[in-house]
What does this fold into?
Amino acid sequence: MSLPLSLLTFLCVLCIAIGQLLFKKTATTLPDTLSVSALLLNGWLMASLILYGLTTLGWVWILRHAPLHLAYPFMGLAFLIVPVLAWLFLGEPLHWHTLAGGALIMAGVVLASRV
It folds into this structure.
């Protein structure tokens, strides 16, 4: 895959990771009794759905230009990006084994994306 396409693929994965944080924020702001209006009026949920929608369109564009076997391994990076962003922005704990597993995933992405 070319460098620009690889960067766009990484950007898609980053947006998916940010979407996960937005979903977490949604979950923490929902009332105990859910209603359609509570969901529709939740800004965190709306932001995450818009981001996921745009990211899905970007992913379709990427798959038009890259083989799935090269693009899809990048999705594994979300397993590292999400916990790091959750630690940075949500104050969630970050353990060494998460970082070690993430390093192995990153190595796998590099290995799988080389042709």
